[in-house]
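Intended use. Records like the one below are meant for learning the mapping from a protein sequence to its folded structure. Do not use them to infer anything beyond what is encoded.
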Amino acid sequence: MISTSEPRVPLAKKIRAHIALADPITWMSASLLVFCGVIASGSFDGGNPQHWGLVFLASLMTGPLATGFSQSINDYYDRELDAINDPERPIPAGWYR
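Structure written out for the chain above:
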């Protein structure tokens, strides 16, 4: 039997930590910029479902994935400041493992 010194973190707490790290409020501007850019390009065909699928895929990639990931990296490098300013954030609180 393998014993670990760290207690196991419940799955629900890990999911909440991932969402808190990704900071969903920052996704809105990036996703909106994708929609505006696609419409402004002039080659968007609103009647084609494939175009809508590509727009939503690009919005997903820039919003939650790119912006959320960069927010997580920022939180990691700012962990000393967050420990003072916002100690309940996942990384400085120590509940993101």
